[in-house]
Amino acid sequence: MILDAFKLDGKVAVVTGSSTGLGQGIAIALAEAGADVAGVDYVASPETKTRVESRGRRFLEIVADLSSLEPVPGIVERTVKTLGRLDILVNNAGIIRRQDAVDFSEKDWDDVMNINAKTVFFLSQAAARRFIAQGTGGKIINIASMLSFQGGIRVPSYTASKSAVMGITRLMANEWAKHGICANAIAPGYMATNNTAALRADEDRSKAILDRIPAGRWGTPADVQGAAVFLASRASDYVNGYTLAVDGGWLAR
User: Fold this and answer.
1) Which residue in 16, 123, 215, 221 could disulfide with 40, CB within 3.0 to 4.6 Å?
2) Which residues neighbour 202 within 8 Å (Cβ) at sequence distance 6 or greater?
3) What digits encode the pLDDT tens for the residues 166-197?
């Protein structure tokens, strides 16, 4: 049956940025599909833990600062030691800094690029090494953005990082497909999360954004859940190197 292809029974996923927002929503969706979850964030994820465990799945809480590569090996090691294996990696953690390009600082550039691009690649590398060692293949899902396709304004390092996410997702697919690894990305549209709080608080900017979205509303974590389960499951085994927009029609305008 086709619905069986979407089941994640017996699978283990790592989801970064798991405490709130899209990361929390994805962690819950993967658990509902049958996966155990290791949630990674710079703060604890008690609500996510409760909601995953209430669905009958195990949740491993890993508190780690992803602005450096220091915790990367330990994330994979702790997941495998505690949950037994690793099958799915969701690189969701990310930050944004807003400032006119002519005034943008080196620190704001480096802080964003380190979390949004550098750690995404090296955590994917660590996961891919584990997938290859297991001999079972695996799924990597990177969270891209509308700014993987567009330039944006006042967010130069965010635009650069999310353009990089789409590019390295393609590279991962090119190199790792032979190992049974699928690397894809989800590009959420304008979502009601912490990263867009400033935009939603600006009445003029919020109206301009909503006027362009055919769906006429901000997205929610629930809107991304189906795409995440699809890309994590064997239903997407022949989808590789693709960035799927979940944007309410934004890019169609």
Assistant:
1) 16
2) none
3) 999 999 999 999 999 999 999 999 999 887 88
pTM of the model: 0.97
Active site (annotated) includes residue 238? no
Q: What is the pLDDT of residues 23-50, one digit of tens each?
A: 999 999 999 999 999 999 999 999 999 9
- Confirm if 199 and 206 have CB atoms less than 8 A apart: yes
Task: Report the amino acid identity of residue 4.
Answer: D
Region for residue 68 given its phi and psi (left: phi exceeds 0; alpha: psi -120 to 50; beta: otherwise): beta
Which member of 158, 190, 238, 242 is catalytic? 158
Domain ranges of the chain: 2-247
CATH number of 2-247: 3.40.50.720
CA nearest neighbour of 113 among 81, 159, 75: 159
Q: How many CA atoms lie within 13 A of 162 on its CB side?
A: 26
DSSP letter at 118?
Answer: I
pLDDT of residue 195: 79
Radius of gyration of the chain (CA): 17
Tokens of 151: 């330039």
Q: Tokens for 233, please give them.
A: 């499951």
Instruction: Count Cα neighbours of 48 within 13 Å in the Cβ-side half-sphere.
Output: 32
**Tokens at 13, concatenated:** 């996923």
